[in-house]
Amino acid sequence: MPSKNVTAVLYCVDEPNVPRKNGTWKGVSLAYILQNVGIKKGAVKVAFYAIDGYTTDLSIDYVMSHKDVIVAYEYNGEPIPPRLIVPGMWGYKWIKHLTRIEVVDYNFLGTWEKAGYPDDAFIIRAKGRVAT
């Protein structure tokens, strides 16, 4: 599969103005992966599962229109376990140690989304600082 590099910053809602990771991620576009496995009619979400039981989700529409959402296997040139990279979204969408990707036809909610965190998880920038 074709790989691509995405330079992106990971922010956690716990410390919204402190970058957790800032660098170049290498991987495969999630849209490319889904296009090649096929998406059944009626699919609305992509559910992601990690080795430790953590889950998260993204809408099919978002994934298919944002080619910089990748499944990364390298960070700054070093191998890493599979990790979802979602530039512009909070870290709870950047699931690491990814073990399974499932396309679903219902409103799947991940670990933090079920706990009340926003499902869209967009970071809003105000005056050079990250804000919720």
Structure description:
It is a single chain. The protein is mainly beta. Helices cover 14% and strands 47% of the residues. The longest helix is centred in the N-terminal third of the chain and has 8 residues, at 30-37. 26% of the residues are buried. The model has no long low-confidence stretch (mean pLDDT 93).
Name of the top-level CATH class: Alpha Beta
Terminal residue distance? 36 Å
- Alpha-beta classification: mainly beta
Going by CATH, the architecture would be Alpha-Beta Complex
CATH superfamily: Oxidoreductase, molybdopterin-binding domain
Which fold name fills CATH's third level, the topology? Sulfite Oxidase, Chain A, domain 2
The fraction of residues assigned to DSSP E strands is: over 45%
User: What kind of sheet is the major sheet?
Assistant: 4 strands, antiparallel
Can you give the helix content as a percent range? Answer: 10-25%
**Number of contiguous helices:** 3
Rounded to the nearest angstrom, the radius of gyration is 14 Å
List the secondary-structure elements in sequence, H or E.
EEHEEHEEEHEE
